[in-house]
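Fig. S4 source data, part A: sequence.
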Amino acid sequence: MNRTLRISLLCALMLVTACGGSSDSTAPPMQSGATPPSITSQPSSTSVTVGESATFTVVAAGTAPLSYQWKKSGSAISGATSASYTTPATSASDNGATFQVVISNSAGSATSASVTLSVSAAGSAGSATDVTTFKNDVGRTGQNLTEMTLTPANVNSSSFGLLRILPADGKVDAQPLYLSQLTVANAPHNVLFAASENDSVYAYDADSGAALWHVSLLPTGEMTSDTHGCGQVIPQIGITSTPVIDRKAGPHGALFVVAMSLDSSSNYHQRLHALDVATGAELFGGPTDISATYTNSGGTTTFSPGQYEERAALLVANGLIYTAWTSHCDIAPYGGWIIAFSESTLARAATLNVAPGASGSGYASQGPAIWMAGDGPGADAAGNVYLLTGNGRFETTLDANGFPSLGDYGNSFLKIATSAGTMSVADYFTMSKEVSESAVDTDLGSGGEMLLPDLTDNTNTVRHLVVGAGKDGNLYLVNRDSLGKFSPSANNIWQEVDGALGGGVFASPAYFNGMLYYGAVGSNLQAYKVQNARIIAPAASHSSVTFPYPGTSPAVSANGTANAIVWAHENSSPAVLHAYDATNLADELYNSNQASGARDQFGTGNKFITPMISGGKVFVGTTSGVAVFGLLH
């Protein structure tokens, strides 16, 4: 799992003497009135494991604008021109590399101290990789790059299969999470966390299957929510979205989760809980009943807990827990709510409704809601949050800055900024056919977004991209630095590949080593090469199997760039776990129907399922628990 190791440094607002930096001997002459750069917080040396990324940050004062150029072992890094630099996934050869940054302005320059990157070998199953969020990281790439046990050589029906099913009291729609070597009851465990639609959270020993703790989040006298006449989540609604873990929060680490319930007075509740990962106890005075209002030029809208469910995975960023809300089917009234809470107090910290003008009836009048097939909002290194919206209202009349005049963002990529208790849409892209596609329920946000790692184009410029796809089956690759906004005549984005996926997308993609993996409805799992920051079509390889609704949301395990396997869940009866060689999806290594006597079958399928891989095992949510796959001997 990629893990950003960030050094958080205080910004300086006044010039101070450079700390450990040195003035560049070739600095240009001082310009009148301009102050040359000085470094107020130096980057720091850091240590990571093979496959992880590392982040170096500097803080400088001086007359704006300041420019930055990071260097690795003395050589300039192309595109590394911000105050922070995040490396690609590291390899053993990066161990001992040095990094420094040169900061310049019109008055001169300063060079930071040289710091060292230490890269150690990935651990064994006993020190397996933490999986604390949906699809492994805040980019939602779905890749675990520190898996040393499972390889294409041993993942086959002779040596790999179903070990056990960890029971739960309802459907496990949320992706399981994992912490390695967590102390529970005075003993270290690799711990598997699961959440059910019956509002229960479980902690199991991931290796032995022993139950460690179980808590019900239903208050006395309450029950889980009914389905509201919608068949999207059945037969009950409790915990649908994937929780998120911050191992540094609370005394042992905290698991944040949203649970829905109905009280004896027929009032619906959405509550944010923070649970101690070692005991299941509530933290930070929780839970918090979720409520919100949002005011813009069109008036004030109010969040109604019964009209929504938390389907999108939770996100931790900027010291906040971000929640994003969907409707029950398209049952009016509903808006497009993003509500953030303080990670340390659970108090509501910021609110945004991206459909404040929703009214009337029809797919293009209500919403948009935020679906994303269980995917979560993503975040970049600067703390900007990205997501896709579903069908809904959009104003083709734009304001002076090119934004919809009343703040309604149907079928859009959104970039959301958070500052001083306020969330706002910093940038967006909306398809030119938004109005006509919304009118016939053709969502963009039926699928999830993914932030690609930094990529270099054919001009040697680093590009920051986000990819998404929805019901129209097109691939949209969007520049995060300039999303493209709206034009009725064209989609002004980085790249669009029309009809590439062979079906509508109700799932989320994965990325590994220059390959993008997508599984549309009724289509094959496909692997697209990403070269020069562009998607190369047609697909480089694809599975022989086609996946029924809702397609498949793949995940990848690898040891650095070696022994890569793509894992995919098939929503069938019985459900099927597939494993493919990541370099060629035509090579199916294993599926759970291969062994005789139904040895590896794990019940009927479910549509919210993404496999999670850590510690030599694969964990798959089922209608009654979590199926655990691994080596049989």
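Fig. S4 source data, part B ends here. The chain has a mean pLDDT of 92.
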